[in-house]
Amino acid sequence: MRLETLTVHTGRPVEPGTSAVTPSITLATTFERAADGSFAYDVYTRLSNPNRTALETALTTLEGGTAAIAFASGQAAAAAMLHSLSTGDHVLLSDDLYHGVRHYVKEVLARWGLQYDFVDMQDVGNIAHALKPNTKLVWLETPSNPRLKIVDIAAAADIAHRVGALVLVDNTWATPVFQHPFQLGADVILHSTTKYLGGHSDVLGGALILRESGELEARIRTLQQLGGGVPSPFDCWLILRSLPTLPLRVREQARSAEKIAFYLSEHPRVELVHYPGLPSHPGHAVAQKQMACFGGMLSFQIHGGQAEAFAMIAQLKIFTRATSLGGVESLIEHRASIEGADSPTPPNLLRVSIGLEHVDDLIDDLAQALG
Ligand SMILES: *Cc1c(COP(=O)(O)O)cnc(C)c1O
């Protein structure tokens, strides 16, 4: 079956018993067991719950994996992946990646003896140079946040696998509609389902999806069930509810983003546009090879510095000044000011998440704000 059909039907069977066409929300935290201690489905909602199982089934199907493990946020999923490693292991991460992951590695896991390096993976040769005998995980984010760097997943996976390291791809920005990391050799896919999968800026969630079941799945399942960072049944229901419209939403958002990227790239007040759909983007050829579409996210640098960036976003009327992404409303954000003191993001960079408004209204809004 094709993706559009899967997004409508996976994890959403007509309910036995009630014949309800959409799933019910099971709020029970505990489930009756037989006198001999056996049980049919669920025991306790931290361990499993019908809504979470439905969401995990859907995410497994959409990414073409064998298992998905859902968490209360993208960060909880990222933390579980990192905690599946051991003291003394080394992890190699993209230098431009979600700042929460960078901070978690540097501020928390370094104290537990995790070794790490951040490298620019646009040149996969840098991965080869930075690998160590104890490298257990290579963490790719492509397109990356916030500079939309593109990493060649197949080439990176090839290099990492030669030393036996696992490859994780944060597929939050590309979504399963535009990019299929398992087909390119990745072992684990991370999603912040808060973003495009949830799609409406009203639910927090995360997931790890695995290409193969086995020891890693068991480890991560343990971290989910004993760590306890699980999503609520309602959160799972909301994310599942958003999946049928995912392909429609992200294709429209990507269409608009591409138009806006071209518009901005020709504007005299714009110094640089980061969008892999632009032929001038350093990752354009790789993105064309590994993505079906270039996505709904872009960032740009305005001539000047932070003051010019702040002055421009003060004038916008349709774009909302807010962090996060992937919702139906267009958002714009001065990224350096949220990433903290060690942010490598240029002070004149603005990150944009394109929503579902008419693209011409969005361009008009940018035009009047740029002046
Ligand atoms: C938002 C985001 C995360 C973190 O997810 P939360 O749901 O906010 O915890 C991780 N990776 C990427 C690429 C993100 O955009």
Commentary on this structure:
With 371 residues, the chain is α/β, with parallel strands linked by helices. The chain has helices at 3-9, 50-63, 74-83, 99-108, 125-130, 153-162, 175-178, 215-227, 233-242, 246-265, 284-290, 306-314, 336-339, 359-370; strands at 67-71, 90-94, 115-119, 135-141, 166-170, 188-192, 206-210, 270-274, 297-302, 320-321, 331-334, 349-353. The strands form two sheets. It has a seven-stranded mixed β-sheet, with helices on both faces. A five-stranded mixed β-sheet has the order 8-9-12-11-10. Helix 3 packs across helix 4 and helix 3 (74-83) crosses helix 8. The structure holds pyridoxal-5'-phosphate. Pyridoxal-5'-phosphate binds next to helix 3.
Q: Would you list the SSEs in sequence order as H and E?
A: HHEHEHEHEHEHEEHHHEHEHEEHEH
Low-confidence stretches: none
Distance between the termini: 48 Å
| CATH hierarchy class name of the largest domain | Alpha Beta
Question: What gyration radius follows from the Cα positions, in whole Å?
Answer: 21 Å
CATH architecture of the largest domain: 3-Layer(aba) Sandwich
**Count of spatially separate domains:** 2
Bound ligands: pyridoxal-5'-phosphate
CATH superfamily of the largest domain: Type I PLP-dependent aspartate aminotransferase-like (Major domain)
* Strand percent estimate: 15-25%
> Which strands sit side by side, in order, in the main sheet?
1-7-6-5-4-2-3
Question: What sort of overall outline do the alpha carbons produce when their principal axes are compared?
Answer: globular
- How can the largest sheet be summarized? 7 strands, mixed
Write the CATH fold name of the largest domain: Aspartate Aminotransferase, domain 2
